[in-house]
Amino acid sequence: QVQLVESGGGWVQPGGSLRLSCVASGITFRLYTMGWYRQAPGKQRELVATITHSNSANYADSVKDRFSISRDNAKNTVYLHMNSLKPEDTAVYYCNARWVLEYWGQGTQVTASP
After folding, report:
1. Which of 26, 35, 82, 84 is geometrically suited to a Cys-Cys bond with 2, CB 3.0 to 4.6 A?
2. 5, 104 Cβ separation under 8 angstroms
3. How far apart are CA 8 and CA 32, in angstroms?
């Protein structure tokens, strides 16, 4: 049974920082491209960042230079370090694992507001 469990979301003032974590189980984690996506109310889910099995990272233009994705294969965990958060970053953030099949976490809310 595959599980992706996100944590670390919450409320932060604009300009603040958060770190999201996603722990995977039931998959051979090191083989998977891991990613973070987000969905704001009334909008489609969008890519935030991905990191391949070989640690090649890719970012949406809107978060480049502010967010950083990393992975720890020994802990089956992928992280999203978010700095200089803006109100438009407010969304539910989802962890994604993709190789032959694709899996999603349940999401964690991030709110950046005064």
Report:
1. 26
2. no
3. 22
